[in-house]
# Entry
Amino acid sequence: MKGIRRLAQHLDISIGTVSRALNGRPDVNEETRKRVMAAAQELGYVPNQSGRSLRQGTTNIIGFMIQTGTEITGQGDTFFMSVFDGVQAVFARHKLDLVALLCSSEEDPSDYLRRVVARGFADGLILSATRRHDPRIEFLAERNIPFVTLGRSLTDAGRPWLDLDFEGMAQTAIDRLVARGHRRIAVTRPHDDVNLGYVFVDRCREALAAHGLTLDEELIFRSTPTEAGGYQIARDLLALEERPTAILLVNETIAIGFYQALSEAGVRPGRDIAVIGRYSPHAHFLSPPLTCFRLSLRDLGIALAETLLSTMPAFKHHYPQALVNAVWPMELVEGESDAFG
Amino acid sequence: MKGIRRLAQHLDISIGTVSRALNGRPDVNEETRKRVMAAAQELGYVPNQSGRSLRQGTTNIIGFMIQTGTEITGQGDTFFMSVFDGVQAVFARHKLDLVALLCSSEEDPSDYLRRVVARGFADGLILSATRRHDPRIEFLAERNIPFVTLGRSLTDAGRPWLDLDFEGMAQTAIDRLVARGHRRIAVTRPHDDVNLGYVFVDRCREALAAHGLTLDEELIFRSTPTEAGGYQIARDLLALEERPTAILLVNETIAIGFYQALSEAGVRPGRDIAVIGRYSPHAHFLSPPLTCFRLSLRDLGIALAETLLSTMPAFKHHYPQALVNAVWPMELVEGESDAFG
DNA sequence: TCGGCGCCCGTAAACGTTTACGGAACTATG
DNA sequence: CATAGTTCCGTAAACGTTTACGGGCGCCGA
# Structure
């Protein structure tokens, strides 16, 4: 005898009552509920997930899908850990569990979703590493599986998404650099599969145009979002006939490699070239400290969770005011890498 | 009509046959199997996870438990991503799915396990951030849930575990430094909750003793495994009356902060002090490049997966020779940070 | 006394699978 | 032709829950 039946037998009451007691139903005597709770504790009873979700059609599990192995987003080393923490802070209030769904680099993300989600694994999804054309969105939408994406795509019209405010970053950074006299400004852009690239570069162009400046095509640097990529960017930049006087690094991870290549060439950020990047835990520990855009990843996680729940009927009423399509602001942290002259 | 029943109705055969066909049972006509497969594909049928695992008592899911928010091990996103990739490479062959079980920093890890695992969520577990005294081990052992831990603890006697070869690292590094003339060598150690700290420092002490040297207590530095922690270590080190001529950094993340504090004081690794650390993607991009111990995280993941499967009856015969208690070797990557004089 | 009502509880169906069992149709063997 | 064996398929039970339904019991007011 196992499970709830064992508990019922032990208490000499019916399994129905046990279930009701455990689930906080009103139609059970307060006295019996106490006894049931105590016995459950004593026997270490935990309801079987499969049985419960088979009956209820719900799992109380939310999946955060991330892709292992690949390097396309260029998020720093603590990025996901921090976001997870924020998401969980919200989910804990609703007895929801967060698990990370790990899609192998060897498997197509859409196939993965089909396998693992269509079989009723999670009640809702958070998608990261959103691609410019992302078939996962359509897949989930037509199946009515609640989801929210971290990152914009071209196919997310009407779907809930959150993203970092890369336009704000572009605008602020460009304005700041131009105000300090820079006229020739370089930018980096991530992989073409990521919509962010277009959004960011376009906004940089606009911001420059507002000052009567143009974005030289040779000043748009692509690379893998890794330390080595940053190194390569600096090498390419230094090799230019006409060097820029400033650069905007859109990824977190590339700053170290970028700094190193400059250092080898005797070029110093903040003196010979202005550098603005993205915050990461080591941004302050570079020489000179990196001027960068920072955001609270935990708060971003909280917002993601609330956005997701606001699309789920069972939780909707708790989050009527949640953001559905929004960019998450970043603040500028002053370092010394963009001092100049 | 939903699920397998719908498929059966559509094909006008019984659900039993459909199930057998999909699961590759021998007692089904090859012709019918083709039809079933085709129809499943066409209708986008995917077996319901709950129904299947309720019946089978197995989920085909392996959980990799990690703790979010907290900073105790100093392992970041890229560490786990790489390990995951290796684990998945093995699991893919057995139609097992890997998910990361995210334990919030606000919840006790043991409580978390009780909640999420005792309810039959996963067939097996990989535990990370193993503590010196880790009640999770006993919990899983007495429930006969297959598991393997990444990291040793005091309570894992007879349990399967894998760990990095910190003894080998200590031995190699100490021997190397002593051979180069160092007599006063500092080491770092992680949080006391992590067994690694004892293992590593003890071995350092032994290795030094073999050369007739002792490990001065004031040369054992503790800190959080973060950039800021590394910074603090360097400050403390520099403030000593009698500075060491070499230091061994046992965590990955602290090197940057350590370098920065040295730099601010005009002390250069490889010239004024020898530094040996752990590999991370930015180790080569420090100035000077860090001499460090590296390992293949993907291979470590593969070994973890094989070790776990070798303890699971259903897969045991595939991995008769798997490591059960083993340390994973690290290789020394020559940088310039331990050149001296 | 009797009907109605509220409180609490037991019964049993249902969720979507897998699989043991049995049987029908066919083949091979003597 | 009888029998045994093989191949394939349908039936139904079982996995562990939740929950709709109905009923027993005590209480209250008429």
